[in-house]
Amino acid sequence: MWIDYFRSGDKSEKLDFLIDENLIVINDLILTELLPLLIVKQEKKIINLLKMVKQHHMHPDWEEIRDYQVSCLKSGSNGIDIPV
User: Rounded distance, CA 21 to CA 16, Å?
Assistant: First the structure.
């Protein structure tokens, strides 16, 4: 939904409603993807809008995620054939 919102505005009314009614949250990972380009483009209105959205702070176990990715790579679960 966020990508559609920023690319074409197709979902803007729906997303605006969800934001206005405080029915949506955003997390650190999404902000990390969205904010750099918005900052470079000086999209202050959108940046301020995102700051108004309730944030859910993530605390991922990055080591566990890396281990899982390695396991997937070795088993071929991701479609990439890597010799072990």
Answer: 9
Where helices occur in the chain by DSSP H, the ranges are: 2-7, 12-20, 28-40, 44-52, 62-75
Range 78-81, long-range pairs (CB < 8 A, 24+ positions): none
Q: Residue 84 above 70 pLDDT?
A: no
pTM of the predicted model, to two decimals? 0.57
Using alpha carbons, select from 49, 54, 55, 47 the residue that is nearest to residue 29: 55
pLDDT at residue 41 is higher than 80: yes
CA 46 to each of CA 34, 37, 49: distance values in angstroms, whole numbers, following the listed order:
10, 11, 5
Question: Where residue 82 falls among pLDDT bands split at 50, 70, 90?
Answer: low
**Pairing outcome for strands 54-56 and 25-27:** parallel
Domain boundaries, the chain: 2-59
